[in-house]
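STRUCTURE:
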């Protein structure tokens, strides 16, 4: 695995913004507004959620080779993504936890969203602590709030992980009376985790798999004997209503994409790592050299 840094992750978010600025065209942009020879496809994603970040850049490469211009629209909240996709504000969401974690969003907006297929199986939500913490199960957090400052460090308020932790897991394990789920952003959660580890202090955070932080930080998942963090699920590509009819070639291509742990892990590692920091296109090129047979139809 390549080393990742918080600054690297934030730099990728800036790169996404630059990509959007460079690809977007106004009414006076002439041919640029029409996109590539086959048109323009806009991907909406959260740059701090690196599953969507990684697959967005993979699709940018692949759809570009198919003759499309790909615009990268950086968003900040899962609810905004689902509402925007349902409203046709952009064309695709490249990594949705739509089966379990974002099931409420799908219940609200799913009638106006197309499922284009799943690319990864076995994604899970977790609560995690540093390896040096002598607690191994979520149920062991009960009565230990003082050790953790009465806090579970979370991510964005609108994340499905936040809702699952706050509304299901914490009550199920009797933690809601003694702990507060502190929300802000993924980057802030990771910065807090890094600071606590540097000082070898106790901390519990919300995490998920697949996610590069599980390898970059010395952390362990807490056992979840009650299954309160939800069942494993698949990660999906979602499109706006009518996507498959408007882009049948793209829809057929996306349906072929399936990444196993090795291929997905390598993609995320390269896109978020230091070696290609600020140059995700080069990271995808490097991935293609090693994983040209990752799935049928991959354009090397």
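SEQUENCE:
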């Amino acid at each position: 695995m390549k080393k990742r840094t918080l600054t690297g992750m934030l730099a990728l978010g800036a790169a996404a913004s630059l990509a959007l600025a460079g690809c977007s065209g106004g009414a006076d942009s002439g041919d640029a507004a029409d996109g590539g020879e086959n048109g323009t496809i806009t991907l909406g994603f959260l740059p701090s959620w690196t599953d969507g970040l990684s697959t967005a850049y993979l699709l940018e490469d692949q759809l570009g080779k198919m003759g499309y211009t790909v615009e990268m629209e950086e968003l900040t909240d899962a609810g905004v993504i689902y509402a925007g996709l349902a409203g046709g504000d952009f064309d695709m969401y490249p990594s949705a936890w739509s089966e379990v974690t974002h099931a409420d969003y799908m219940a609200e907006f799913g009638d106006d969203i197309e499922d284009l297929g799943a690319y990864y199986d076995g994604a899970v939500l977790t609560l995690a602590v540093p390896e040096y913490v002598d607690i191994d199960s979520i149920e062991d957090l009960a009565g230990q709030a003082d050790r953790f400052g009465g806090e579970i460090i979370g991510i964005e308020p609108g994340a499905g992980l936040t809702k699952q932790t706050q509304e299901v897991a914490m009550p199920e394990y009797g933690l809601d009376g003694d702990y507060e789920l502190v929300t802000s952003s993924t980057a802030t959660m990771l910065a807090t985790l890094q600071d606590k580890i540097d000082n070898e202090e106790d901390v519990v955070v919300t995490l998920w798999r697949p996610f590069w932080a599980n390898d970059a930080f010395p952390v362990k998942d807490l056992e979840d004997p009650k299954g309160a963090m939800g069942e494993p699920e698949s990660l999906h590509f979602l499109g706006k209503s009518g996507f498959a009819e408007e882009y049948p070639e793209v829809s057929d291509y996306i349906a072929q994409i399936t990444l196993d742990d090795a291929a997905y892990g390598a993609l995320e590692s390269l896109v978020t790592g230091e070696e290609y920091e600020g140059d995700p296109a080069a990271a995808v090129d490097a991935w293609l050299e090693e994983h040209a047979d990752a799935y049928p139809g991959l354009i090397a």
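REMARK: The chain has eleven helices and nine strands.
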